[in-house]
Amino acid sequence: RGIFCLCILMLYLMMCFMQGLLNNQLINISEKALWIQHEMEYLLGLQEWQHAQCRGCFYLEEDGEIISHKYRLHLAQRSAVCVTIRPCSIPQAQRKSCHWLSVDTALFILKENETQENLQLVSFTELQNKEMFGWRGELGAGVYWLLPFTTGCRLRKVKTQISGEAQLVWRDEDGELALTKEFRAALLEIFETLDLDGNGLLSLEEYNFFELRTSGEKCDQEAWAVCKENFEMKKNELTRQGFLDLNLMEANDRDGDPWDLWVTLLSLGYNKTLEMTEACPFVIDISAERCKPRIKAISLEAGGSQLSRAVCSSVLSKGEAKVLDGSENIFIYTYRSGSRITSVIENKSENKVIIHVNNEQSKNCMNNRGLTVFAVEVAPKSMMVSQHVMALNEQEEWIYSCVHSLVC
Ligand SMILES: *[C@@H]1O[C@H](CO)[C@@H](O)[C@H](O)[C@H]1NC(C)=O
Ligand SMILES: *[C@@H]1O[C@H](CO)[C@@H](O)[C@H](O)[C@H]1NC(C)=O
Ligand SMILES: *[C@@H]1O[C@H](CO)[C@@H](O)[C@H](O)[C@H]1NC(C)=O
Ligand SMILES: CC(=O)N[C@H]1CO[C@H](CO)[C@@H](O)[C@@H]1O
Predict the structure, then answer these.
(1) From ligand 4's centre to the CA of 121, what distance in Å?
(2) Which residues contact 93 (CB under 8 A, 6 or more apart)?
(3) Which residues constitute the signal peptide according to the record (predicted)?
């Protein structure tokens, strides 16, 4: 087995090296080396690290804001840790294409310091291997927050031509309402994204993220007990069949009118032809050398000020700083990784400033604002993200050339 692993490893190393040569703009060899080391230990089975996995999802709101699950991680002991996040495909759904796999992801690791509100940025996933982003380092015992992040370059509102509407339910010969094949497939896909621990069942807690997202109300223990009498459950958790039946009942309640069902589907990021275009399911993996990591989804909400502070701090600490021409109180920080560039404007002055941002000289780039030229207002003594930039077409060279200038 050892020899077999070694062969695979050699092949893998060669492939990585070749890819590095071909793609030298995008791949950082030293980052790659860390991954190779990790994969090597993993493949050779030397690494008896303990693992934990949790799923989650980014959802795009009507106003373009992105919300996602947030997690608490508990480590009983100081340990070497490896954390990764990647968009996940859902094999059960048997889709031809999962376009959300190209959505960029990142994870910010914050540490609770004395109180729950006082969070400090520890690090973020800087390493990249294809669609996976990771971080490897040492963490002390304690409670951490893991905040998923996506720039909004790829997960964004797009206007498409309305091209029909999928049918959700139909009546069989006996006049009984049934789910169409397409709707069943979408529901099973939804089930997988809701099943955060991946055990094939929905607990009340997991189910409530669905309720919160679609109706804004939680289901309590009593209602859950009623569910148990009507729908298939195992170990007090809803099965796939139970979830399908529950949705069929919803359709029956409205006498086959799909209006409510569409409200549910749209809020989960589906469009009218049942493509998941405004959501991106992801999976987080954590392995620790010395203890079993424990991870739990706590909420489903916008990143908020905690996440934007973390993003800004990461750019301030890892990015290159430049003072804006003609104003010693304004700094532009630029963080570059293989796949993303983020710039942050810091205002050290007493007045609000308006900064003009011009990307006209950039080539093959897209940003999270969807505009080539725009203005940003920065409040006194504060900082904010100017833009996140990514390649429009990753296979081709992309050139970032941005001019920030002071308007007033
Ligand atoms: C590659 O990554 C390492 C470690 O993250 C960093 O120190 C180095 O500056 C990076 N090199 C390039 C060319 O981005
Ligand atoms: C925890 O917070 C306090 C007060 O905000 C600060 O002085 C201290 O340095 C922080 N500790 C760590 C380990 O960051
Ligand atoms: C749904 O999304 C797919 C993929 O982006 C697109 O081709 C289709 O036209 C969309 N349908 C509607 C009704 O918007
Ligand atoms: C000079 C000054 O107070 N600068 C502030 C600008 O805003 C950042 C972020 O809020 C502060 O950390 C600086 O102290």
Answers:
(1) 17
(2) 185, 186, 188, 189, 192
(3) 1-20
